[in-house]
Amino acid sequence: MDFLQVRLAPPPPPPLRSNWASPVASRGRGSGIALLTLDAFLQRLARFLDRPLFPWKRLILGFSIGQYLFESFLTVRQYRVLQQPKPPAVLAKEVSQETFDKSQAYGRAKARFEIVSGLWAQVQNVAFIQLDVLPKMWSWTGDLLFKWAPARFSGEISHSILFVFSFIVLQQVLNLPTRAYNTFVLEEKFGFNKQTPPLFVTDMIKTTLLTAVFMPPVLAAFLKIIQKTGTQFVFYLWIFAAGLQLFTTTAYPIFIQPFFNKLSPLEDGERKTKVEELAAGHKFPLQELFIIDGSKRSAHSNAYFYGLPWKKHIVIYDTLIEKTETQEIIAILAHELGHWKLGHTTRLFGISQAHLLYVFSLFSVFINNRSLYSAFGFHTTHPIIIGFILFSDALSPMDTVIKLLLNILSRKFEFEADDFANGLGYRAELAASLIKLHAQNLSTMDADWMYASYHFSHPHLSERLKALDWKPKEALTSEKDKDTDSAVKASGREEL
Q1: Annotated catalytic, 418?
Q2: Mean pLDDT of 304-321
Q3: I need a labelling partner for 45 at 20 to 30 A (CA). Which of 102, 225, 438, 471 fits?
Q4: CA–CA separation, 423 vs 327, rounded Å?
Q5: How the cofactor binds, per note (predicted)?
Q6: Which of 2, 418, 448, 481 is catalytic?
Q7: How many angstroms separate the Cα of 452 from the Cα of each of 67, 81, 247, 291, 496?
Q8: Which residues contact 209 (CB under 8 A, 6 or more apart)?
Q9: Per DSSP, what are the bridge partners of residue 186?
Q10: Phi, psi of 299 (to 5 degrees)
């Protein structure tokens, strides 16, 4: 049970009625009947799940432990691939044996860390469940408010804000050993870490302060919507969450990222001219080109764009510029332009909205579930934030399925973006940049199919080169490139 991954939540509304009552009135007869049928199903499901002595605690514990065992099984499968002595045939000429051996060693180290850190997370989850930490912490934060806060801050919203913030701080403390080991031992050993201990601590303090500023109003609005709209909260909460997602996507690079990194305009020259020509040629609404000082924390790197549909900004990591030729950077950005041109970002946003609607609709089934609250020690009070945390954990098996499906779709989009760059004539440059980046970053060059299906949002290197119909030619990594102190990386939705 991922108690420590606190998510925003909703309060116990009046007796269950139609969560869609308001939208139904303005819809056609057919859609209204469909929504009423869905609402009737959700109410029946709510009654079925809210039964005395329903084994919620055992179920959620079983889900959590089962997921860890399954993911560990996948990691063991991947570990066998990481023990292979020779690179895949498609990389036999491009990647030296020394680079491949280092990549395999790095992958094995990360796999071992994955199992150990996952075990530590499970120990925390089991302890939190068995020791009834949630009700104890809810009571403790309530006592703090009663003793120190003015009377106007004694309501459920203030109590929930203090509870969530306390959990976030607790999460940082409990996860500090694994974070420190990952940064200063694992990443340091393979030459990727650039953080100093003071910068590490400063980042943690900044993150906590920013959370203290932004979390309270968001959580307060979240809870207030449910309190005001009662059992009709699903639609209104969905609209709020969608608007918040749009706002944060645009605002983060402008208001939050500068606390951690410096963005500087890309200097005039061949690189900037070619990027602008690429954007103009496809009517990409490029507003500004930036370089970000990613090297102050890590040798890993990427490139991404952000902004409103009519005003986009491209950000390139300084480490990417240092180790990649201009034409290869253009190929990388052509790949990113493919995501925009093919509507991948818009489609993924639409899917995320459908997922939010699905989550909030199911939450309406659990928000009054007294057996769920009682199973975790909340016998007389039913705080919305607690209900949402418990509901999120009960939903984890379905979330795992959705994650798998989204990864399949994401990998499809990556192949399509590669094909788009290939169609623009950048096949050789894109293949070269992929090989160089993976070699410099010691990224996994091959993967177990089951592990990749579950974990990877991007195809692994061998798959992408085969899709590009890349033929092995000659080594693209020099001795200088193999220096892991200069490693760079590209990963994630908006990255290569």
Answers
A1: yes
A2: 83
A3: 225
A4: 15
A5: Binds 1 zinc ion per subunit.
A6: 418
A7: 16, 11, 32, 31, 17
A8: none
A9: none
A10: -85, -10
